Amino acid sequence: MKLEDIQLAALLHDIGKFYQRTSSPHSEKYRGLTPSEFGQTGAHGKWSATFVAENGLGEDIEDLVLYHHNPSKSKNPEYARIIRDADHHSASERHKSESKRNVNEYPLISVFSQVSIGEKRETENEYYLPLMELRPSNLDMIKPEKFRRAVMSGWNLEKEYRRLWNLFMEEITEHGKLDINTMYHLLKKYTSLMPSAVYMSVPDISLFDHLKTTAALAGCLYLHRKDAGGGKPYLIVSGDISGIQNFITGVASPEEAQKGMSKRLRGRSLSISLITDAAANRIISEAGLSQTNILFCGGGHFTLALPNTERMKEIIEKVSLEVNRRFIEAFNGELYLALAVRETDPEELRDFGAVLDDLAAENLKNKRSKFRGLLDEFFRSETEPPEGTCAVCALPSAATICSSCRSHEELGARIANADHMIRVYGTLDADFSEAGISYFFENSRTVISRIDELASGNHRMDVLRLNSTDFLEIRDRIQADNVSFGFSLIGNTVPAVSEGSKLRALDFTEIASTARGADKLAALKMDVDNLGRIFAEGLQDRSVSRISTMSSFLDLFFLGYINQVASEFSFIMDPCDSCRGNLVEIKSSLGTIYRGELCEGCRENSIPSIYITYSGGDDVLVFGPYDDIVEFAGRLRNEFREWTCSNPSIDVSAGIFMGGHKFPAGKAAEIAERQLKTSKDLGRGKISLFGETVQWDTDRFKGFNELLEFGLKLEKLHEAGKLSKNFIYSLLKLWDSTFHEDIRDEETWMRCQEIRLSRKDYVPYYVYKLRNISDAELRRELFREGINFIPWIRIPVSWVSLRTRSGEVNE
């Protein structure tokens, strides 16, 4: 039996759970089977086998899925044992629930609600995810909802399961037999939001992640046993690219290179994602494995499940040397791929978080001995002095801007117009090529002709629809049989205007000019706090499928949902007459633009203002007009809190830097990164901006959300003529004369917050200033409410100062 058949059988071994929950009958031919034949708790195998038979996937696969709970009854007991063992190794967390549950009463519980760092939380509530298919355009609909556990009794999800099954089968029937990688993506679409196991289990693991990890481990066991290898069967491999921050932001913005800077930064960050993807795919493709073996991939990191064989170790070593040799040649060693490999047995997989922790520690050591074995190439003497240096990256180049920086700019432009990514297994003249994998970015008009052109080269390829799960729409127009189909999420919201048939991404000067008041550009850096600890010790039973589920839902947020949040920040150049009168008019370098609440028609024609330069893993770098970036930061964090069930163990920190439209973007990102570090050094769960570091939410101390709200209120009062700028600015002077702080760490930050609460020296002068407000009711309101904001007034006043600044475009 072939490796692909084993992996496909493992991928479909529990598809019967999905089928069975619709209450549809299984095939008549299995009616006489008893538990002694299909195995205890293995009844769903009859539905899995029915699905395989109905779709003509072969008798061998039908037999394997039917008997995966009782391999001795299989025609191929050796292979059925592989499926059974992989199933057990993937689901080592099973049988942990205290109670038996009715399968159709329980939707998927959000795995984030189970995370706890420190003290165990006790709650009567549970966070459930809706049972539906994945749709990247409405990921807001899959945020977890809180219910008391008691109310779940009596629910019946059969109708939802039947609706999903019908949609799933419509796609299968329409497109016929699918290869394993296409089936993988179809299962991801339909089974990511349903529990793998409910009866005697905590239903927080998605069926998709269980199917995926079972298929990955089955492929490993097949190759390991075929190799007759002894010892531990698995190699868990962690890839970690270092130097990313400097690579993306360590570029200059000389006058001659200003224009393409936004696309160049976008291209550089995208190239990191593609390098990571290429290295992971090159390793699994050389081993003949499927997409299931890439457990995680993003943010410059990947984790692979591989067989523990000598051939596999040789492949890993070869790809590592190739990629790092290329990093020396192309980037002067600025990037480095650290690869940590750990032989792992099934018992160790029970605590997959600890395995990942070990690999992370090993990669830290690897980074201290970069390019080991390649030092001769690294220190190769130059035969001739360089003719010059690139004005952007400072690497040797005869041209003002080197070919590498030009290619990044072109890549940034290509992605702005693309809705498909084609991954080709081979080195071609492509939009991007690395580690023997090539990438093309196409739109709906060009994708078919490009696939036809590439198919003639007999290269295997994956056609991935970007940010849409309707990826099979073009399948029937493709004649080649060496093509897999799927989808990929990517944070690709980019401010762009139409120019002919193409979209042109705005440059940073144009973006800055769309702000209200001051035309400042801002960079936001944000990432998840304590992510390593969350994976290593946050869950009680850290099986590979549970860790995989958590990683999948982080990806959905940072690669998919972030686009929805970003799309809410926009402007329009030609609003309808109904909207026009209610919008704020801004003279920008694009001409007159309008911002404010838009009708549905105007929203469709609006242009996003947020430029996602990078988003993946747990990490975000975005640029935009300063005011939208400030509001976006708060909105994204609040959405993340909802996404993660408001769990106190999970939060983000952020840093924002604002500069003039000519301020070097790379430097702005670097300073935003330092601001982010300040937020973390001062206790995490904070944001640094306007020279302040504050927590997100108000408790005893005022938080960012409430401070911004107060800033917006002051701004409206000023616009209504009820408050003068002088009064608002005087609040800042009040703060300066009252508080003199030296914040160095979390302890001093906390002490200063306490002092802000206790010191009241400013009260008499504040009351005196209020006397100048003629509106008595407003005066009383600002006395009651406003006085509580004075200790943190720098953020509200800075906001008003920038938003009410007047001047010429690009002043």
Would you give an account of this structure?
By secondary structure, this protein is α+β, with helices and mostly antiparallel strands. Helix content is 44%, strand content 16%. It is built from 30 helices and 23 strands. The strands form 7 sheets. The protein has a 6-stranded mixed β-sheet. A 5-stranded mixed β-sheet has the order 8-9-7-10-11, with helices on both faces. A 4-stranded antiparallel β-sheet has the order 4-5-3-6, sandwiched between helices. Helix 4 runs antiparallel to helix 5, helix 8 packs antiparallel against helix 9 (207-226) and helix 11 packs across helix 16. The longest helix is centred in the middle third of the chain and has 27 residues, at 261-287. It is globular, with a radius of gyration of 28 Å.
